[in-house]
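Translate structure to sequence.
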């Protein structure tokens, strides 16, 4: 089957999906969660073949790896999505005009959603679950690193659809090639919206080549500011969690900003990072403060490239600032609009930070590791949008819908 034929088949199947009842969509997802767990050995075997091609010290290895525990978590996420309220048919706005026309703005599916993503096999299930629940068909283009895992995942999904009497072409996994991605980005007759999910390079490629409308999910260059009024123990826990919980995800900390009045507390603030062998790229003042207090082989001098870098590794940059304004200017210059955090006991400073920082998610006294659809109560997520037009932040079910106007009259005509 050619790619055009694949696109056409998915477009045709999208009409079947939108006609399913809420109970039918829910039943498919519950069945899928059961099938995923029953076929976990098959998926783990495929994932092992993918892992063989990647070095274990690659930070992306953790994102690629599946385990029984992670498969159970994916199945749990699918069931959570199934249990969420139906996002379709919601009345967003309604009013009656003076001439008696009744207007309603109602949520509806996009139709066909295309997603291009990298070495994260869980995304295959996340995207399908959100698309099906929101009445959309989906076209998936995964990366080469996870192709064996993704092929088995697609097989489990399509088999579940067929068993439920639903057109299995409601999902299609394209070849893991650059050419297939370009074809989808130009499939204006078949695809309603494309969403990239990955690093800066992938996102730029989609934005620069898409003829189909795209929702930009940005790279996460994440900063945390430890304010002069920040609680030291709270700050230590927040920095450690934001940096080391999972270094390969987009909400991981990349740069720690510290007020100059807290330099004496800096060694304790970052002490636990040494246990995880985190390399710190320091400006002159922070380097002097940490010299002799942090392992020398992990203490490096920052360069102009150290700030504004999404490390996705056990690395981060560190900069000392003299004022909150200087912190805000640094974030405005180097941040990516993803997630930013401040640690402070000063309520007004926290409010100023949240008002002034231009990002999808802005935290006070909490780590950026919470930027996640599941953590926000959205079930699974399809990505973190950093754009301002349309969805912003974690994109769950409601963000997978658009709307249309329904107008009811009684014979009115326009003068």
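Result:
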């Amino acid at each position: 089957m050619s790619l055009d034929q694949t696109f056409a088949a998915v477009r045709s199947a999208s009409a079947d999906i939108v006609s399913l009842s809420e109970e039918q969509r829910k039943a498919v997802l519950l069945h899928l969660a059961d099938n995923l767990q029953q076929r976990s050995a098959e998926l783990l075997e495929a994932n092992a073949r993918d892992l063989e091609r990647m070095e274990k010290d690659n930070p992306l290895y953790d994102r690629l790896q599946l385990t029984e525990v992670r498969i159970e978590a994916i199945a749990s996420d699918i069931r959570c999505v199934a249990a969420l309220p139906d996002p379709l048919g919601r009345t967003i706005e309604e009013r009656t005009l003076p001439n008696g026309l009744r207007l309603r703005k109602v949520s509806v599916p996009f139709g066909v959603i295309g997603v291009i993503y990298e070495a994260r096999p869980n995304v295959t299930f996340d995207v399908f679950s959100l698309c099906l629940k929101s009445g959309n068909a989906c076209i998936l283009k995964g990366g080469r690193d996870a192709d064996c895992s993704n092929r088995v995942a697609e097989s489990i999904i399509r088999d579940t659809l067929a068993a439920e009497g639903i057109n299995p072409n409601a999902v299609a996994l394209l070849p893991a090639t650059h050419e297939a991605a370009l074809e989808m980005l130009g499939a204006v007759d078949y695809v309603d919206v494309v969403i990239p999910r990955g690093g800066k390079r992938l996102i730029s490629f989609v934005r620069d080549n898409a003829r189909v409308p795209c929702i930009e999910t940005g790279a996460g260059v994440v900063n945390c500011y430890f304010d002069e009024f920040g609680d030291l123990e709270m700050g230590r826990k927040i920095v450690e969690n934001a940096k080391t919980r999972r270094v390969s995800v987009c909400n991981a900390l990349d740069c720690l900003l510290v007020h100059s009045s807290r330099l004496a507390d800096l060694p304790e603030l970052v002490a636990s990072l040494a246990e995880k062998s985190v390399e710190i790229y320091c400006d002159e003042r922070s380097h002097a403060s940490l010299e002799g207090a942090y392992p020398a082989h992990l203490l490096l001098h920052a360069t102009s490239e150290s700030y504004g870098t999404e490390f996705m590794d056990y690395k981060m940059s560190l900069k000392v600032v003299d004022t909150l304004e200087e912190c805000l200017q640094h974030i405005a210059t180097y941040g990516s609009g993803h997630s930013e955090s401040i640690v402070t006991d000063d309520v007004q400073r926290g409010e100023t930070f949240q008002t002034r920082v231009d990002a999808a998610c802005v935290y006070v006294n909490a780590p950026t590791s919470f930027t996640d659809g599941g953590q926000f109560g959205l079930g699974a997520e399809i990505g973190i949008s950093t754009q301002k037009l349309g969805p912003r932040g974690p994109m769950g079910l409601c963000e997978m819908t658009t709307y249309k106007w329904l107008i009811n009259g009684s014979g009115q005509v326009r003068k």
